[in-house]
Write a structure and sequence with these properties.
mainly beta, 1 helix
Amino acid sequence: MAFPYLFAESFENATLGGFNSETDSNTKLDYMHARDMVRVTSADGIAEVPWDGAYAMHINLAGGTADAYVQENDGLDASAGATIWARFYFYASENLTMAASDRFTIFTLMETGNAQEVSVGILNNAGTLQLIVSETGSSAAQAATLPQGRWMHVEVKAVIDSGANNGTIDAWLDGTPIGSQIPTLTQGAITH
C-alpha cells in the first residue's frame, strides 16, 4: 500500500532518522522513549506518552541559546504553484516559561536563501504563550493560545506563490483553524 506523503519520521531508532542533518552544539536534542519522556516533560511526573510511536524528539530549552534543529533537504520540496501539507504532533510542558516577546520555532519550510516561507512556533505575547503561524516578510500572522501539558496535533497547508503574490498559509491546531488564512504571499520555492 502506498503512503500519501513524501516524508515521514517517527524517530523509532532513537536517532534523527530520515532527516538529512542535525545542528545542536548545546546538546539540547535527544530522541526519547515514551517511558523516559514522562519523567522530563511534566512538572508532576504524569504526562501523556507520544501521540504516535514510542519515541519522540525532545528539546531541552534550558540547554543553551544556540540553535538546535534537524533538517530535511529532499522530501519536502515544493515548486512555485505547488501545495505542500505538513502534519506533526508536539507537547509543551505545563512548566514551559519564556521571556516576554521570546519566540521558539517548532517547524519551518524554507527556500534556497533560507527565508522562512512558512513558520510555526511558540510566542510569549505579553505573558500569554501562543502557537503562531507566519511567513517571513509578511505582516500577517495567525495565533492561538498554546495548550500546555498535553500532546497537540498541528496541520499546515501552504500554497506556494506562483509569481502573482498568490501564496497562502492555512493552519489547524487539533482540527480547529488557527485564525484565518494568510493570503497574498510572495514566496520562493521550498527546498528544505
